């Protein structure tokens, strides 16, 4: 399966990445090697081997949640440059209306 620069250009367009002709020619053989490697891994996977995310079985260890008193609101907001309605006031970063 040999990827051509035109194949890479189509993928770049879908990903909204602008590539020069030199970059397309340079990336085509590299991506071809990556795809061949992925196909080799698919060939190795056998139906009798269950899929796993780790080589060793892992168990998450969670601690119990313990309710503790928190800082008084005045202390929390004391270091804030601006507050509003007992909350931190931060600059708007989205162009959406609240």
Automatic annotation (TrEMBL):
Key words, A-Z: ATP-binding, Ligase, Nucleotide-binding, Protein biosynthesis
Record NCBIfam families: gatC
Keyword presence, Nucleotide-binding: yes
Source organism per UniProt: Microlunatus ginsengisoli
Keyword Transmembrane found: no
Catalytic activity: L-glutamyl-tRNA(Gln) + L-glutamine + ATP + H2O = L-glutaminyl-tRNA(Gln) + L-glutamate + ADP + phosphate + H(+); L-aspartyl-tRNA(Asn) + L-glutamine + ATP + H2O = L-asparaginyl-tRNA(Asn) + L-glutamate + ADP + phosphate + 2 H(+)
Highest taxon, organism lineage: Bacteria
Annotated protein name in UniProt: Aspartyl/glutamyl-tRNA(Asn/Gln) amidotransferase subunit C
InterPro entries per the UniProt record, alphabetical: Asp/Glu-ADT_sf_sub_c, GatC
EC number: 6.3.5.-
Gene: gatC
Pfam families xrefs: GatC
Similarity remark: Belongs to the GatC family.
Assembly information from the UniProt record: Heterotrimer of A, B and C subunits.
Stated role: Allows the formation of correctly charged Asn-tRNA(Asn) or Gln-tRNA(Gln) through the transamidation of misacylated Asp-tRNA(Asn) or Glu-tRNA(Gln) in organisms which lack either or both of asparaginyl-tRNA or glutaminyl-tRNA synthetases. The reaction takes place in the presence of glutamine and ATP through an activated phospho-Asp-tRNA(Asn) or phospho-Glu-tRNA(Gln).
